[in-house]
TrEMBL record:
Top-level taxon of the source organism: Bacteria
Transmembrane segments: none
Protein name per UniProt: STAS/SEC14 domain-containing protein
One Pfam family per UniProt: SpoIIAA-like
SUPFAM superfamilies: SpoIIaa-like (SSF52091)
Amino acid sequence: MNFLDAVPAVRRIDTDRDDLFAVDIVGHVAAADAENLFGLLEAAYALHPRLDVLVRLIDHDGVDWSHVSDETARQGTAHALEHIRRCAAVGDPDWIPYAQGFFATPPPFELRHFDWEDEAAAWRWLGARPTGRS
C-alpha cells in the first residue's frame, strides 16, 4: 500500500449555500469512504431538514457496496427520501438510473445528470456556486 491508497474518495466542496451538500467523488469508493459520505450527509441533515446535493464524479471507478453495512445503506436511503430536494450529478458515468434503483419507488426528489461541459448549468440549476475547497 502506498500513501495514495489512503486518499479519501469523498471530498467536500464549499459553496455559497448552507443548505447545499456538494462533494467530489474521486476514483474508487471504498466502504470506509461510503460510510464517511453517509456520516457527512447525516451531519448536514441535522443542520438543514431539506438539502440540495451536488456530486462531481472524477475518474469514478465504482463503489464497494458489498462492504457497506446493510443498516447504513437502509438509513442512508430512508434519510435521503426525507431530506433531499434535488440532486445534480456531474461527470461520468451517469449514475442516476443506478441511484434511482436504490429506492423501492421513484424518489420524491429531482435527480439530474450533467456532463462535465455542462457543470455550470448544474450549479445554476441548484442556484449555487462553489466558493473553494475544504
